[in-house]
Amino acid sequence: MDSTDDLKRDWARQFPDLDLSSMLPLNRLARLGVLIEAFQQDVLESFELTPNDYGVLAALRGAGRPFSLSPSQLYGRLRRSSGGMTKILKRLEASSFIERSPDPEDGRGMRVSLTARGHAVYERVFHAFVAASHLVLAPLSEKDRAEIDHALKQMLEVLEGHGDEAPS
User: Fold this and answer.
1) Has residue 142 been placed in a domain?
2) How many domains would you assign to the chain?
């Protein structure tokens, strides 16, 4: 029994006429979000990075060579405000993980690029995440992990598509 089961029991008592079945997976996902954030912070702590910092490094690495994006591409991909992204970029630049330079294709724009130091720390952090993920999910069989992954993929599709629907 987990905290959602306790809530389910309380809700059923308080709202006996409501179908609360859709609330249960969303509540569990919210709880997982909190736990995953703590997991990420634990892995990143020794690297003196925040999840937002790592998100920028990962986005730049994922962009492929030359590991460079515009600030607007970064905040679009990471769903951060331009002001919030500026703070993150300043912190990463001060640590020599990224560098900002004029965009050669757009004289008004800037490019954010992963430095050799940023690339190296990204690789170390990524390997730390892989190792930590294996440890935390070790109690689950391969079949269980595949089933969970499939169910979570379905949930993401539903939730990501939710904003696309016109109100009825």
Assistant:
1) yes
2) 1
